[in-house]
Amino acid sequence: MRAAVRAERLCKRFRHTLPRYDTLVGRLRGLDRGADTWALADVSFEVAAGECFGISGPNGAGKSTLLSLIAGILEPTSGRVETFGRTNTLLSLGHGLQPELSVLDNIEICGILMGLRRREALRRRDAILDFAELGARAELRLAELSTGQAGRLAVSTALHADLDIVLLDETLSVGDAAFQAKCEAAFAGLGGQGKTLLAASHDLELLRRLCRRTLRLSDGRGEVVEPAPAVLFIGNSLTCEEKGGNGDRRVLNDVPGLVSALGPGGVAVEKVVGDGKTLQDHWEDGRAVELIRSRSWDFVVLQEESTRPLADAEGMARSVRLFNDEIRKAGARPVLFMTWAQRGEQADQDLISRIYRDLGAELGAVVAAVGSAWAAAIEKRPGLDLHAADGRHAAPRGSYLASRVVAAVLFGHGGKGGAAARLGIPPGDVRFLDAVAEECSGR
Amino acid sequence: MGRYADLFWMLTRTEFRLRDQGTLGGFLWTLLHPLFMFLILYAVFTRMMGSKVENYAAYLLIGVVQWNFFAAATSGGLTSLRRKAGLISHFRFPRVLIVLSSVVAILLSHLLEWLVLLVGLLALGLRPGAGWLLLPGIIVVEAALAAGLSCLLSVAAVHLRDLERAWGIALFGLFFLTPVFYAGDLLGAGGRLMLYANPVAAVIEATRGLLIGPPPTSLAVLAPAAAVSLTLLAGGVLAFPRLSRGIVERL
Fold it and tell me: Which positions in chain B touch A163 (Cβ < 8 Å)?
């Protein structure tokens, strides 16, 4: 996980001055300077590249101060803040625009201040106007625009200025509902481009929609609030296999359950699975879509029936695209569960892997490369039984490896022990499978 | 570097346009001030100075235009950080660019004034000589002096809100301590000393020497002023990041 912003023991003190202190006369008379305020007192946190990170707190809690420190506009009194990527702008109301100049000129000014070359700023001007929906007012003086319209201009410019880290200070609340929705979609899309958003607001509802993690500031202290992630699995018996009927029900290959056990505490998982079901079956069935819309998921893991990439890659891509749109609309992130080749058919794996990776790249979706991990494990230890007796499904070691790869992709860390013990896998094999999973999830 | 060049040029243009509305009419307004000042001073002092100074009209015109630039550029530079508080508190970039662009925007009008001035001087019967070639150098010194001082004044004005008033009064006093409308040698030995202590006076005197004559003495006067001005500018720009620490909180 690459960090975009890292704050360590950040403190900022404001030395207030009474109105008359800041004058020659005041200094000569030796006026009292007034009290100090610690706007931030020992705040530490880290934001990953691609994350939408919220900052909440009442007025005067230090939200804007924190964003200004990150932008490099203010300097910390002690502690430090590091940024990785381009950022130099604090987007807020009363943004440093020139009310006496035209909307067009202001876009140019704003673009250059955000670090674009003049040529680039001029080239992107129409796109910025379009996004802000101010095309009809391009020639007007900025002062003629409403506060909301001016706010839209600044946000739109920021979205087009290639900033790696976008710092929003309560800017969105001025846009109307339609523009807010458009911005939220654009911000949600930033993550896919590896760009990071830090949004300060006291609109908790807005932050909840936009961000998973939120830094709650009060009296200069900060606490990162992180809701337990919710994951929905859509797939077939390679995701989870349920055997038997009412009295004698056994769950084999329970990837959702294992992922939940491997993840941070309290992960909520839900699954829609059915033997032999393709994603197209799920789409037509309707239950999966219903579930996607039913609550706010962090991730939806899509697993296609294992022979479909080989038999009908086009059909699979169609289904994945349909689901992708639905998942994005619901504000969740799609994860593609790359399946494994059947026993003895290792040659198929390259094609399967490529199809999943291409789809992942096309849609900006993460691929959990379970199939690649299986192939790597089988190559290193051919004797290790990942496949179940039928040569298609997963034996406990295979389930563990699959879950380990998915968990690493979802939560960015290896996970806790205990899950493997439940399956009765010896510690030596667990270490081996953990190593393979680490390698194949790109960590 | 290119990015900052774009930024600097953009700030300068904005500053220039905000002042003159970017129109010829706007420029004529800025021309009106020195012109008016010239006419009044000329009407009042020509009888007194006319016999003591060669071509008093040209002498006065040069003084007025150069003094006006110094006064306008330093006053504008002094308030520049405050005027651009919005930009400073929303964007990170080298803040010295704000001060420099404020001075350069006024320098642009000043260059136009020089064009008008040169036409005026020709009309007053001056003939261009080799000394005129040094004019760009003079303008560089003028600009360096104003920009260097502005670096210091702008930061000080953030911490001392009434400095703008104080500087206005200081300029008023300095105007009379600078031979704009009178001849420097009227003050005798003290006058000569003042020429070396007051770089504005030195620049104006040197310019008159080069354009009206005699040139040799003017270069001797200009050299120390040039040294002071360029040092002030280099020092101001280099020290600016340190000087301007903590100004965002005060804006």
Answer: none
